[in-house]
From TrEMBL:
Cross-referenced PROSITE patterns: LRR (PS51450), PROTEIN_KINASE_ATP (PS00107), PROTEIN_KINASE_DOM (PS50011)
Keyword list, A-Z: ATP-binding, Leucine-rich repeat, Nucleotide-binding, Repeat
Species this chain originates from: Photobacterium profundum (strain SS9)
Full protein name: Protein kinase domain-containing protein
GO CC term (a single one): cytoplasm
Gene3D superfamilies documented for this protein: Phosphorylase Kinase, domain 1, Ribonuclease Inhibitor, Transferase(Phosphotransferase) domain 1
Length: 485
């Protein structure tokens, strides 16, 4: 039986990497105390485990972003003048043309979400929106990234996921660009001007037809997160490997990163070996459910299991099959979600895992609009320096384990980590993972160095929530020293 969400929970759009996430509360205009209450309520209402972390944790984007959450508005509200002075506008009414009434908000509008319409173009008049910082237009019918975007002086976040874009003109990228999402389009080449956007920090290009990347990207000294999975790149992009701040890198599903055979480190079972029960969570690459064994299989494996049934489509991180293969290549580690078996039938791909005990909680919250690539935490969240030290030691062991198996996780974050009251951790979410055994030794060393930066950010983020009374201790200083290594 599928878990039934409480009345009032609605679909929530992921404004980060534009992945699709299952229902969460649509909230707006609440005080901090109200939002804290909402988070606790959601935590109690949903079955809480590692597998639902992206559901409950997505609250972070609502709470921590100074931009807040965008309520779905109506065109009639806009035309009536009811929305005068608003800073955030979201319209989804199967629009085929840009409503020029939006221009009446030129003095206030900072965030515009036109996702889930039928738009093919944006008018030149968009330049009147001088204060616009963020635009989303995912799931439309664009074939060309609109050049008018490049003329907006304060625009820094552009999200056009799941369109039909095949062309990105030289002048379509705004000068202040920090965050570009072009996942799941038909792009084969990118303009050299991409390398001339020095503020760029996050770049999502998975699921296109890219055959090469501009050499000018070697100038992107502030680029921290890159998704180039599920493209047609025949060579490892050397211009990215030497970027000084790159820390989160996903590149699976390209010809240069192809593996020759499927990994059989765990048994292959038929889908009839288990029955799916309550849904624990849903992410970009699949649905995770609690499950029970059928008949004879129950004696061969742990009784409590979870099953991730992968979707067949490309995600913000790449192909689901690459995620499965990376999970299997990593193998078992006490601080990593344990894979028990796989299902690989025609049209049905699944991973059977240990069910994580319910007393584990999320260590961090995902990045918000402002932090861009760095994790966030609840305002009242603190950790003792002893617990931070223990968590870091475990994550360092996980790091060594991953890279001894030549797997780059690509998403090493506190929000992908669970912990308990004794600071034991379980690490998971391999959606952005990439195997790299096929690369040269020099390239492999670069990949490991890139992910080591993510490990340093992980440590730095935890130190930011260290209890004030512990910050003068020697352990705190020793942890701080790790950041310079």
């Amino acid at each position: 039986m599928q878990h039934v969400l409480p009345k009032g929970l609605k679909h929530l759009h992921d404004y980060g990497l534009n992945t699709r996430i299952n229902p969460l509360t649509a909230v707006s205009g609440h005080t901090d105390k109200s939002l804290i209450f909402i988070k606790r309520t959601i935590s109690q209402l949903l079955p809480f485990s590692f597998y639902s972390n992206f559901l409950v944790n997505y609250w972070a984007v609502l709470y921590h972003s100074h931009h807040g959450f965008i309520i779905l508005h109506t065109l009639s509200q806009l035309k009536s003048g009811e929305l005068a002075g608003t800073q955030r506008l979201k319209l989804s009414e199967n629009l085929t043309s840009f409503p020029l009434e939006i221009l009446s908000l030129a003095d206030s509008l900072e965030i515009l979400d036109l996702s889930n319409n039928q738009l093919t173009s944006l008018p030149q008049e968009l330049v009147q929106l001088k204060k616009l910082k963020i635009i989303f237009a995912s799931n439309n019918q664009f074939e060309v990234l609109p050049e008018v975007l490049g003329q907006l002086p304060h625009l820094e976040m552009v999200g056009f996921k799941a369109n039909k874009i095949h062309s990105v003109p030289e002048h379509s990228l705004p000068a202040q660009l920090r965050w570009l999402i072009l996942t799941d389009n038909q792009i084969k080449t990118l303009p050299n001007s991409l390398g001339e956007r020095p503020r760029l920090q996050k770049l999502a290009l998975a699921g296109n037809g890219l055959t090469h990347l501009p050499q000018s990207m070697s100038q992107l000294d502030n680029l921290e997160l890159v998704r180039i999975s599920a493209n047609q790149l025949t060579e490892c992009p050397e211009q990215l490997l030497s970027l000084p701040k790159l820390a989160w890198f996903a590149f699976a599903g390209n010809p240069f990163s192809q593996t020759k055979s499927a990994i059989q480190s765990v048994p292959v079972l038929p889908s009839s070996s288990f029955s799916l029960q309550d849904v624990l969570g849903q992410g970009a690459s699949g649905v995770i459910s609690k499950a029970t064994w059928n008949n004879k299989y129950q004696t061969d494996f742990p009784e409590d299991i979870a099953v991730k049934v992968f979707k067949g489509e490309v995600t913000s991180d790449g192909y689901p099959d690459d995620e499965l293969q990376a999970c299997l290549k990593v193998g078992n580690h006490p601080n990593v979600v344990q894979s028990l078996a796989q299902v690989n039938e025609d049209g049905y791909l699944a991973l059977i895992m240990n069910l994580i005990p319910s007393h584990f909680r999320n260590l961090g919250l995902p990045p918000c609009f402002n932090s861009c690539t760095r994790d966030t935490f609840s305002p009242d969240f603190t950790l003792s320096v002893e617990h931070i030290d223990k968590i870091v030691k475990q994550m360092e062991e996980v790091f060594v384990h991953l890279h001894s198996n030549q797997v780059c996780h690509g998403d090493l974050y506190a929000h992908n980590t669970l912990y308990d009251e004794e600071a034991n951790i379980i690490f998971g979410d391999f959606g952005a993972a990439s195997m790299y055994h096929m690369l040269t030794e020099a390239q492999q060393a670069c990949i490991k160095q890139i992910e080591h930066r993510a490990l340093c950010h992980f440590i730095d983020d935890l130190l930011s929530v260290c209890a004030e009374g512990n910050r003068d201790e020697k352990t705190f200083d020793l942890l701080k020293q790790k950041l310079s290594h």
